[in-house]
Structure to design on (166 residues):
């Protein structure tokens, strides 16, 4: 039987994981900590590719919440933000038991179109597991059509967060 080397990052103690919280960070990145659980993986213990997309959306929703935009409130107002474009570059697989940070920020906003950038990194920032971009548009839920403009609260919060021109 051959000896194998475990190349995974050591799992941080629970006290360290508790210190990881959703937080707005410098350079306008929002950081969202994740831990790979069994249901995130295939039978080999490697994260299933679609799980990364789920984590990206969770980070985006939490980022919006951190600047005062609760997604449930947005939906109640009749606005949805569906994904219209998605680009992902898988660089290295995460494995069961590992922890990572999902970083996200808006990099462009034009009318009702918002482009979000992502990086999923190891907690120590030494490894980049994934990079990606997602484009969202504001849609009127009742009419099923693209809105003419973002709701004022959303636009104001995003402009303030990124410093975009109105």
């Amino acid at each position: 039987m051959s000896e194998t080397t475990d190349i995974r990052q050591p799992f941080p103690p629970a006290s360290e994981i508790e210190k990881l919280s959703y937080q707005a960070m410098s350079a306008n990145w929002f950081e969202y900590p994740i831990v790979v659980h069994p249901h995130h993986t295939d039978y080999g213990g490697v994260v299933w590719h679609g799980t990364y997309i789920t984590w990206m959306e969770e980070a985006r929703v939490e980022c919006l919440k951190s600047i005062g935009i609760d997604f449930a409130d947005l939906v109640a107002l009749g606005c949805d933000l569906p994904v219209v474009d998605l680009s992902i570059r898988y660089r290295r697989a995460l494995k069961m038991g590992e922890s990572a940070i999902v970083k996200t920020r808006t990099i462009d906003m034009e009318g009702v179109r918002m482009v979000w950038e992502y990086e999923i990194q190891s907690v120590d920032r030494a490894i980049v597991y994934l990079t990606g971009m997602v484009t969202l548009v504001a849609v009127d839920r009742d009419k099923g059509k693209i809105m003419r403009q973002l709701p004022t609260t959303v636009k104001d919060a995003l402009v303030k967060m990124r410093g975009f021109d109105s």
The domain at 14-162 is CATH 3.10.129.10 (Thiol Ester Dehydrase; Chain A). The mean pLDDT is 84. The first helix runs from residue 14 to 19.
